[in-house]
Amino acid sequence: MIRSVIAGVGSALPKRIMTNDDLSKIVDTSDEWIRERTGIKARHIADDSETTRTLGLAAAQKALVHAGCAASDVDLIILATSTPDNTFPATATLIQADLGITTGFAFDMQAVCSGFVFALATADAMIKTGQAKCALIIGSETFSRILDWTDRATCVLFGDGAGAFVLKAQEGDAGILASKLCSDGRHANKLYVDGGPSTTKTVGHLRMEGREVFKHAVVNMASVMNAVLHDANVPVLDVDWFVPHQANKRILEATAKKLGVAEDRFVITLDSHGNTSAASVPLAFDVAVQDGRIKRGQTILMEAMGGGFTWGAILARY
Ligand code: UT7
Fold this sequence. Notes:
Layout: E1 2-12, E2 16-19, H1 20-24, H2 31-38, E3 42-45, H3 52-67, E4 76-80, H4 91-98, E5 105-109, H5 115-128, E6 134-142, H6 152-155, E7 160-171, E8 175-183, E9 191-193, E10 206-208, H7 210-232, E11 241-244, H8 249-259, H9 270-273, H10 280-290, E12 299-306, E13 310-317
Parallel strand pairs: 4-5, 4-6, 11-12
Antiparallel strand pairs: 1-7, 2-3, 6-7, 8-13, 9-10, 12-13
Helix pairs in contact: 3-4, 7-8
This protein binds oxa(dethia)-CoA.
């Protein structure tokens, strides 16, 4: 059976680090509040020269090197982002051009914080149906550009960054084993941006009912992970690492408890990255590959939840 194998991973972060203390000089907040309520200590913030395109490109280049692939091998690029460089063309096509690729196809995917999981499932389907053989899946975000820097309830939560996977069509037991995607647009007003080209003709700012999102996140994440494990017939205790969307440490603790697994099996990077939306899962995955936690042959469960609401999970053998 042809599977989508994770052949390489990479990530990139802006140079500038903003600590909680830095934020307390801008809005009425404190390091103590942010750490206790979220687990976040610092985040990276893009400067004017760093964009979704440049961060995505840097992550993609590292993933290609890690996979031992040439850019010319790539026949599909999907970029998950809610913060594209321009409304159009798709930032994925800009990265395609930056990589010197003139064949295959590239497009952006928008499922907010679940974007990378949606993109991975889409690429997997395309690989399994023979439409692609080597896919570059990127999550890249510059949420700092759409934050209301006077709103302490949201601006302390997010950061910028990018992560990327190279997926290759390969026979065997490794690769993506199962995926499940969900959305429920009745909750659109709980996490959204108050602008857009067709309405305000502006980019808008992020707005969130934090408590409501929190409540749904724990329930949705646990249920979608259980669904994927059920579909793949894999017991939860066989999962070596959980690589979740990085929004709030308390959400991850509650999710681990609901699943009945130890928290230390969750890869957590939100302390130093904050919530990087569609970049958070591949960024965390890359950190755990680089530091030796995630090893070849292990079973990994990725999951995310974001605006829409959208949520989903992917089970893979790395
Ligand atoms: O990536 C998409 C998914 N996003 C998420 O999963 C986010 C989910 N939500 C959350 O992570 C949490 O709800 C937050 C971290 C956003 C907020 O934590 P909370 O424990 O739900 O706090 P809260 O909104 O209930 O606010 C508690 C208090 C309020 O003050 P009062 O009304 O009790 O006087 C807020 O005004 O904390 C206040 N507050 C702050 N205080 C200091 C809100 N933000 C801050 C702040 N610094 N930055």
